Each structure stands twice: as structure tokens, then as C-alpha cells.
Amino acid sequence: MATKHSRMSARLMISPAVLLLLGWMLIPLSMTLYFSFLRYNLLMPGMEEFTGLTNYRFFLTDPAFFAALWNTIALVVGVLVVTVIGGILLALLLDQPFFGQGIVRILVIAPFFVMPTVSALVWKNMFMNPVNGLFAHAAKALGLQPFDFLSSAPLASIIGIVSWQWLPFATLILLTALQSLDQEQLEAAEMDGAPWIKRFWYIMLPHLARAITVVILIQTIFLLSVFAEILVTTNGGPGTASTNLTYLIYMQSLLQFDVGGGSAGGVVAIILANIVAIFLMRMIGKNLDA
Amino acid sequence: MARSVSTRRKLITTVFAWAIGIAIFFPILWTILTSFKTEAAAIADPPVWFNFHWTLDNYATVQERSNYFRHFMNSVIISGGSTLLGLIIAVPAAWSMAFVPAKRTKDVLMWMLSTKMLPPVGVLVPIYLLFRDLGLLDTRIGLVIVLTLINLPIIVWMLYTYFKEIPGEILEAARMDGASLRSEIIHVLTPMAIPGMASTVLLNIILAWNEAFWTLNLTAAKAAPLTAFIASYSSPEGLFYAKLSAASTMAIAPILIMGWFSQKQLVRGLTFGAVK
Q1: Domain boundary pick from B21, B39, B58
Q2: CB neighbour class for A41 (10 Å; exposed up to 12, middle 13-18, buried from 19)
Q3: Is some CB atom of chain B closer than 8 A to the CB atom of A126?
Q4: Which residue, among A40, A113, A161, A244, would best test binding to B if mutated, counting the most B CBs under 10 Å from its CB?
Q5: How confident is the model at residue B157 (pLDDT cuts 50, 70, 90)?
Q6: Percent of chain B with pLDDT over 90
Q7: CATH number assigned to the domain comprising residue B128
């Protein structure tokens, strides 16, 4: 169908996008890899030297790395549990007929459009602050001791904030999937006397399985890189209590100016993200009929 | 929905759904309300809901003290600029992949997507050093470049899925009638592609407006967009809830409105067509 001429011009039209992305990937990646083998601190310019795997050894045996790795996993899993379960429940609710569906849906998805620094600061100050926050007011009204969320349970508080941001995403995707479910199948099951829980378990949930997988994989990619929420609430503390890998590498590179160590951490982060990415790419690839 | 539901059940669902919807929206509502309070009313215990002295002072103060408008414009320029630049690069690419598919088209698409999986922190150091050496730190053009590149895969993908839906026969008919490639694009394709392009633009402005890794790490006072400007409230002095709320309300309002218009496209754009 396509002529030789149009093939040529097609290739010409793709090339800017391909070349730019190729440069965007290869240049910084190879630099990260190169730096990770160097002793390179911005505070000691001109002292760079090849050190082999030393940076990796230091990074991977640093207690902060294990804390950060654990916090990263806790953050990702915590947010996934809240948003997937919450998202399924919300999608089931929003799929029911009720008055003002459109408006409620708009209210529910709104948090997704709030920039991370705003949502983190609003939650930190106006809700979680132990003196002036609404939660503290509520606790005092009930005669309870106000709880200092971000000092006493920093990671759980951040999981809460990030979950609030991502719940709309999960809900919206699961709702879209739910609405593509064949209603006749459900009605037939209902007529046969299948109770709601059985209809949910044997018809709805299998239908949602694919959408749930997509939600999990895409959110994981983004959640591995949570940064702004930590920066403006706890700065990773107290200690390393809320430091994730992204934040740890940021501290090492831009606060301690340890380019070599930060780069070794960057390589580790890339490897971890790739493990997730492989699964996601497979799922999307199956669905693509190019 | 074909099933008839009793009015009673519908009423119960209505109350329940609205309660949950308002609860989820509440932090945003509270921020908007607080932005119109005095600083004293903002921290009042018990909280004041609507019966307070409404004031616009916070908005004026935020502008006066920190030249809010400049950061707002930084956000507009950075998100608008990166979306426009991305579109210029992505439209030809997506067009040719959709209409002149080659054997490797799928591989190219998948590879483009894979660049999106790269954790930003993995390339933080080299990008920071490159920006420093090229004098791009704290410049709007620097951020436009980075945001164009990180969102380019999404733009290409979204456009590709939209272009795919345009029937190829129409193009062949135009070709038979002797239309050149140029007029094919201008007269046949563009009018059909505009809705898809509009949603792509919308989603990308949203993503770029809210991007908070590169904007925080690559800017200081001069080129900081709203994401980075708002972060300066993390170490405040004195009472600041009302001012934080005013700054936040202005920062999220335009995107909230855009977002509500692009609900459907959001699913498509963010799942790369895996959920429709």
C-alpha cells in the first residue's frame, strides 16, 4: 500500500522523536554508569579517580540503603493496597444508579489534579499538624491527646497522603473497566439466584483483573519515584524513617555532593524499576496491534 | 442501565455516594475556604466553616510578598511550551506510525514507552551537571526541554491511538484523487485528528503543570514554577495557613478545571491504551 516515497518520508518523520529520546536515554544513562565507578565529589573538584565497585559496595552496605529500600517497598505496597481496594469499592459504588453521579465523580477524581507539593503541604499543616491541624482539633473535641502524625508515624502519614492522590486514578480506571462489563451476563446470574457476593467474585472481579494489574503496574512505576511529598513534609526523617530510595539518592547527590555514590544508587534504582517495567511492557505489548 | 432499581435504594446510594465524594474532596474544599479567612480564623478551634469574615487579603499578600504572578507564568510557559514542542515532534512520528506502519513500528512504540519507565532519580546527577555546565539551571527553557522529553512518549502514544482510529480508506481515497502528502495532512487528516490532539494537549498540560521532581531539582528563585514555589511554604515563619491556601487555590484551580474536562482521556493517556 505504501509507496517507497511515503516510506522514506515516514522514516524521516519518526526520526526526530526517536533521536531525541535515544539521546535522552543514552547520554545521561551512560554518564550515570560512568560516574558510578568514580570517586567523584563536587566539593573536591579535580580529585576524580576510578574506584571500581567501591561506590556500589558503600551504597549497598549503608544501613540507610536498607532503611530506604524497606521504606520504598512499604510506601509502594501501602499505597497500592489502599488505592486498589478503595478503588474497587468506589468504582462499584459509582457504577450504581444515584442522583448527581456526574458531580460525585468529579469530586472523587479531583485529588489527582492537585500538584504533589500542594497536597502534601495542605495535609501536613491543615490536617496533620499536632497543634493547629483539623485532626488535632477533632481529637481535642473528643477529649483525646492530639497525635503528631509526621513525627510519630511519618511513613504511614506519607502513605496516607499519596494514597489520597492516587485513589482517583485507580477508581477512574476500574470504573471504566467495570462499565465495559456485559450487563446481560450479570442479569442472567442474578436471575439464576446468584447472590451479590458470588456475582462480584465470579463475574466482576475476573473482568476487572486486567485493569487491576494495569493499575498496580503503572502506579508502581510512579510510586517508586515519590519525591516531592517527602521533601516538603519530613525531609526523609526523623532519621531515615521516611526516606525512600529516590530521596536517599537525591540527598547523596545534591545535598552531600557525592556524585559517585549517588550515581551508584541511581543504577540500583534503575534496575529495580526495570523489574517492574518488564511486566508492564509485556501487558501493554500484548494489547497493541500495530 | 437497563435494570430498574427501587427509588428507596437509589436514595440510599445517593446519600452514601455524596458523603464519600465530599469526604474525598474535603481537603480541597477546606483549602479553598481557608484561603478566604484571616490567619487567626484559619487556625480557629473549633474550626469556622462558613460564618467567618470573608477576605481577599491573602491573595493580595501572596502576590505582593513573592511575586506570585511570575511563578504562575513560569508554570504556564513551562507546561504550555513543553506541550507545544512535544506536539511538534510527536505529530509527524505518530502520523507515520499510524498510517505507514512498518515491521518495526510496534518495537519503536514499545521502546519509546520504555524510556518512560526510567526512574528520574537514575539520571538526576548527569542532568543536573549537564544543566550546570550548559547554564540551563533555573531557566525556563531548560525545564521546557526536560518536560518535553519526559512527556514525549505519552504524547506519541496518545496521538498514535487516536490516529489509528481514523479509517485508512479515507486517506487512500484522497491519494487516488491525486492529493499530495502535504494536502493529505492539511485537508484530510488534520480536521479528523483535532479532537484527539486536543485531549492529548490537555492531558500533557496537566502532567507538566504538576510535575514535581525536575521542577524542584532544577530551579531556584528565578524559573521556579508553582510546584517549586509552593514548596517554599514547607519552612514558613509565623501564621501562614490562609496564605498557603490562597497560593494553593490559585495553583490548582486551572488544572482542576482542565482535568474535569479530560476525565476520559486521562484513562487512555495514562494506561497507554491498555484500558479503554
Answers
A1: B58
A2: middle
A3: yes
A4: A113
A5: confident
A6: 41
A7: 1.10.3720.10
- Which of B58, B79, B96 lies at the terminal end of a domain, its last residue? B58
* Mean pLDDT over the full length of chain B: 86
Residue B209: pLDDT band with limits 50, 70, 90: very high
Residues of chain A with pLDDT under 70: 1-4, 287-290
Could you tell me the residue range of the domain that residue B249 belongs to?
69-270
Cross-strand pairs, A38: A50
Q: What percentage of chain B exceeds 70 in pLDDT?
A: 96
Question: B240 in a domain, yes or no?
Answer: yes
Distance CA B93, CA A239 (A): 48
**Does B248 touch chain A if contact means CB atoms closer than 8 Å?**
yes
pLDDT value at residue A9 = 80
For residues B180 and B266, membership in a common domain is answered with yes
**For residue A57, what is its C-alpha cell?**
559496595
Match domain A43-110+154-287 to its CATH number in 1.10.443.10, 1.10.3720.10, 4.10.320.10, 3.30.565.10: 1.10.3720.10
Judged by a CB distance cut-off of 8 A, whether residue A40 touches chain B is no
Q: Which ipTM was obtained for this model? A: 0.88
Tell me the H-state helices in A180-258. 183-191, 196-199, 205-223, 228-233, 245-250
Residue B172 domain flag: yes
Nearest-neighbour CA in chain B from A6: distance (Å): 7
pTM of the model: 0.89
Shortest Cα distance, chain B CAs vs residue A166, angstroms: 12
- A25: nearest CA partner in chain B: B115
Q: In the prediction, which pLDDT does A185 show? A: 83
How far, in Å, CA of A111 to CA of A79, rounded? 15
Q: Given CB atoms, is B216 within the 8 Å cutoff of chain A?
A: yes
Judged by a CB distance cut-off of 8 A, whether residue A51 touches chain B is no
